[in-house]
Amino acid sequence: MSQPKLNLLVAYPYASRQVIKSLAEFNKKYPNQIRLFLDSGAFTAFKTGKEITLDQYCTFLENLPVKPWRYFVLDVIENEEETMKNYEVMLARGFDPVPVYTYGQNVDAIDYYYSKTDYIGIGGLVGQPKNKLIRAVKKAQDKVNGRKSHLLGFTSMPYIKHFKPYSCDSSSWKGGGRFGNADIYAGNGQMIRVKKEDFINKPSEEVINACLRMNVNPFEAKKAERWQGGRSFLFYIGAASWVKMSLDCEKNIKTKLFLAIGGQVDVELLTGAYETFLKNQAKF
User: Fold this and answer.
1) 114: pLDDT confidence band, cut at 50, 70 and 90?
2) Which pairs count as long-range contacts for 260-264, CB under 8 Å and 24+ apart, including other chains?
3) pTM for this entry
């Protein structure tokens, strides 16, 4: 029986030499156990005012030491015509990128992309108000009509269970570092939200049991040093929880949930959580 795979997504601006080297080493240690999805990083570049040229992106793809499972087109934020042009140019240059339909674009573009490929991305979802976001996802998924699609930056589990997209991605596993809280996986796609204060005294039995199921010692959180830096307890438990939910998501509803990497520490946390899973499968 094949092992469940680790689904990771890294955007071009965050794909440093060290990150790529670590992913290549992990791939060598666990052959064919990682699905690496490459994002062009257009949204990041747009927010920071940095330009990514098509030649830069294509050269990067050609020289990667670890073969990506799939990669997105270099999209141009707020410019669907240029995005479509980049897609056509990449096809002509022998690449096979996943095209991106952006919310607000004419939905007929979805059928156009499916005339070229069997798998598309649905973008423009991040930052939308919840009611508008759900309408956008429903409208796009109705047009997708069961074909392969990837929801960029969208992992609301009730809607993932309902729409069952082929894949999706999120950086929510890093919430412990951003907001001082973390999600502990309780099974069945459900998370328990915890904060540092929840561990000052004795954690609840529910939290203790959820931690132990992931081979995480909840009482480590009592140590002050476990709350410092990018490897803090909340980062660690977040990585373990989201890796396990990603594995369950693919097993139970057939959706590949990719976890976004923002740097070397992220690689270490997620691959470490996956290795722990492999070594303790009987406990999961």
Assistant:
1) very high
2) 260/8, 260/9, 260/10, 260/11, 260/169, 260/170, 260/171, 261/8, 261/9, 261/10, 261/14, 261/19, 262/14, 262/171, 262/174, 263/14, 263/16, 263/19, 263/230, 264/16, 264/18, 264/19, 264/22
3) 0.90
